Amino acid sequence: MTRHFDEELAHFKETLLTMGSYAESSVGQAIQALTDRNDKLAEQVQHNDDIMDRYEMEIDDMAINLLAKAPLATDLRLITVAMKISQNLERIGDEATTIARRALELNGEPQLKSYIDIPRMAAIALGMLKESLDAFVNKEPEKARTVIPRDKEVDALNRQLYRELSSFMVENPATITRCLNLMTVSKSLERVADHATNIAEEVVYLCEARDIRHEANLPLP
Amino acid sequence: MNCMTKDTQLPALKTVPSAPAPVPPAAPAAAAVAAAATFDVRQLNVWFGSHHVLRSVSLEILPKAVTAIIGPSGCGKSTFLRSLNRMHDLVPIARVEGRITLFGEDLYGRGVDATLVRRRVGMVFQKSNPFPTMSIAENVTVGLRLNGLRQKALLLERMERSLRMAALWDEVKDRLNANALSLSGGQQQRLCIARALAIEPEVLLMDEPASALDPLATAKIEELILQLKLDYTIVIVTHNMQQAARISGHTAFFYLGELIEFDQTNRIFTNPKQKQTEDYVTGRFG
User: Fold this and answer.
1) pLDDT at A59
2) Is B176 on the interface with A (CB under 8 A)?
3) Do B223 and A1 count as a contact with CB atoms less than 8 A apart?
4) CATH number of the domain at B32-281, please?
5) Is there a contact between B266 and A68 if contact means CB atoms under 8 Å apart?
6) What percent of chain A has pLDDT over 70?
7) B266 vs A70: CB contact, 8 Å cut-off?
């Protein structure tokens, strides 16, 4: 028997995935705005952020109405998980906006160095985001689990870039503004990877009803 | 599911000519809404003897939509529902005042035949009530036969279509001549829905149609209601608020014979305006 409720859930998931595709393309465009020194693209990212904010509100509204119908088990987890995913996506949108804003500043000055680590970080973080959303769509907890350790690669690249940029600043104070902007970009990508990790953890909860967010199993004080 | 196509002309409510009922003055906007509504209920009061059961209830029920009626026991939900097809005419001590129109026609107007009203406004009850001495097939066609339809081919066609609309055909097509009581509770209830559909009403009233059923049979009835609303106006009384949330577009909350709140269902269950509604839907009283 096909349930009418399943159609509503399918529409709800579709809306979330549309938001997810905005998040992916926003981060991609923000990095491209930096590497291609393309101000127009940076402005486009800022516009997308408004759209994502509206999606977040729409998803919350849909979720509240679905919860009023008293879904249980997988359906219940799906709706609560989707609300958390949309929050993470909205924050990814915010990080993309931050990157775009810094790109606009960096594009106004001569390029400090060739961008190697930043596109690499972006590729890993975006890959994590894509895989975690795929895992959500296809209900694949194993795939979600493979996303989580990759967060450490992005953290390591972020730290490495920090050290490099710190030495630039020590050697030549004229680079400080550009270095700080690049550090912000790097930190934003590190946060995108964190949000992708959060989504992956939610997918595991959705599929297995197991909370894997925190290793230690300490009792509450 | 195929949409039901009406192949018989529906009778007008009136069987004898009478003067048109005076129309109370209404604001133009309200008049426009009334024209679009299936039922327009104005200042409905119902008494059983000296007991004032419904107090000045006014609301509009939209076509091809599900309207849920909720409220604690004894609040007047069923009384309201039964007013919509003149079931109170059968109760000697009942008195109905106010005005109810069905697509603009006054249900309680002079010369209106209550039997014709009930033909256009079908009803399904809490407890399934198939005729115990009749087969499945006979149960579905009984209303048509009582209305004088004799052509066997047409009866068979209507029976199959009604059973299909009630999502029961596949389960009973090989035993149409079996006694109706051989069906399960959920199947019997769908049989009663098929019986109501067979005479091609415009409206279906349902008084807690799933409250005696298990969750699976309930889910089937709910799916059926969501399908039927594509063709019918449905008014359902339910004690199950989640059911109201799942199937209805509008919800009316009754308490102590008064209509406390009437709004879109999602608002009633997520942000009701009246405190009494909030207290009821959150389980704080009732």
Assistant:
1) 97
2) no
3) yes
4) 3.40.50.300
5) yes
6) 98
7) no
Interchain CB distance below 8 Å, B245 and A5 = no
Token code pair at residue B224: 């059926």
Residues of B with Cβ-Cβ distance to A1 under 8 angstroms: 219-220, 223
Size of interface A-B (CB pairs under 8 A): 26
What pLDDT digit, counting tens, does each position of A18-60 carry? 999 999 999 999 999 999 999 999 999 999 999 999 999 999 9
DSSP string, chain A: ---HHHHHHHHHHHHHHHHHHHHHHHHHHHHHHHHTT-HHHHHHHHHHHHHHHHHHHHHHHHHHHHHTT---HHHHHHHHHHHHHHHHHHHHHHHHHHHHHHHHHHHTS---S---HHHHHHHHHHHHHHHHHHHHHHT-HHHHHHHTTHHHHHHHHHHHHHHHHHHHHHH-GGGHHHHHHHHHHHHHHHHHHHHHHHHHHHHHHHHH----S-S--PPP-
Structural domain boundaries in chain B: 32-281
| B168 chain-A contacts, CB cut-off 8 A | none
Q: Mind listing the domains of chain A with CATH numbers?
A: 4-208 (1.20.58.220)
Quick check: A101 pLDDT over 50? yes
Give the residue from B136, B131, B107, B137 showing the smallest Cα distance to B119.
B107
Question: Do residues B205 and B235 lie in contact, with contact meaning Cβ atoms separated by under 8 Å?
Answer: yes
Q: Is the ipTM of this complex over 0.90?
A: no
A-chain residue closest to B225, CA distance: A4
Find out whether A161 and A124 touch, Cβ atoms under 8 Å.
no
Mean pLDDT, rounded, for A209-217: 81
Q: Residue B144 corresponds to which tokens in the numbers above?
A: 């048509």
Q: Which residues of chain B have pLDDT under 50?
A: 1-10, 16-35
Do A65 and B270 lie within an 8 Å CB cutoff?
Answer: yes
Q: How much is the pTM? A: 0.81
Between CA B227 and CA B9 the distance in angstroms is 23
Cα B88 to Cα B75: distance, rounded to the nearest angstrom: 16
